[in-house]
Design goal:
The chain has about 200 residues and is α+β, with helices and mostly antiparallel strands. The chain contains two helices and twelve strands, in the order H-E-E-E-E-E-E-H-E-E-E-E-E-E. Strands 1-4-3-2 form a four-stranded antiparallel sheet, with no helix packed on it. Strands 7-10-9-8 form a four-stranded antiparallel sheet, with no helix packed on it. A two-stranded antiparallel ribbon has the order 5-6. A hairpin with a 2-residue loop joins strand 3 (about 60-65) and strand 4. The longest helix has 19 residues, at about 10-25. It is elongated and about 55 Å long.
């Protein structure tokens, strides 16, 4: 063995490194709160997102060999091609959700009378079922029409371009876009005015 000479600074740095390594190894992992729902994943998949086979709006993040459940924001689904959440119309989701199929007596007439435009029923592409709202302010109103089994239906406000209505489980909800954004009827999201 070679003799090691160490000055005071070297001793302090070595101590800091050893103490840091000890705390890194001994501190409880933040995954402990997800232990009951997490499953193991190969460490080669570390920090990668993996699709949930049962729900297109959910996915798993591989963290320290564990699959941590995550959920995409509203109107987004997990896109395996990019390994992240994406707008629902960009995602090919094979999952069939019965709750997304509208009955014959739907809200088409009510929507058309409020918007003054023909209403095209949404495609059968599943949409996220998250109730997380990314908008800044939401005001709930009762809707006096027939209930729909569609999870979400969106249509513009009568006079305010930065607001729209969201029909969720038969309830009419007034939603305001973030400052500087307007509602895009075609994209069904709030966007910059020049992109609509």
């Amino acid at each position: 063995m070679f003799p090691i000479s160490m000055n005071k600074t070297g001793l302090i740095m070595t101590t800091v490194i050893l103490v840091g390594a000890y705390f890194t190894l001994s501190v409880a992992s933040p995954l402990s709160m997800h232990e009951e729902t997490a499953t193991h994943c190969d460490k080669t998949l570390e920090d990668q997102n993996l699709p949930d086979r049962k729900d297109c709006a959910r996915y798993f993040r591989c963290v320290y060999g564990r699959m941590v459940p995550k959920e995409c924001p509203e109107k987004m689904l997990f896109n395996s091609a990019i390994g992240n959440c994406d707008l629902y119309y960009n995602v090919e989701c094979v999952q069939r959700l019965e709750e997304l199929e509208a009955p014959e007596d739907d809200l088409t007439e009510a929507i058309e009378s409020l918007t003054g435009r023909p209403f095209v029923k949404p495609s059968k592409t599943p949409r996220p079922t998250s109730s997380i709202a990314s908008e800044t302010s939401i005001e709930r109103n009762s809707f006096t029409g027939e209930t729909s089994t569609l999870k979400f239906v969106y249509f513009p406000h009568e006079s305010d371009q930065s607001a729209y209505y969201k029909i969720e489980n038969g309830a009419k909800i007034l939603v305001h876009c973030e400052a500087g954004k307007v509602f895009s009827f075609d994209l069904e999201i709030c966007a910059r005015p020049w992109s609509v």
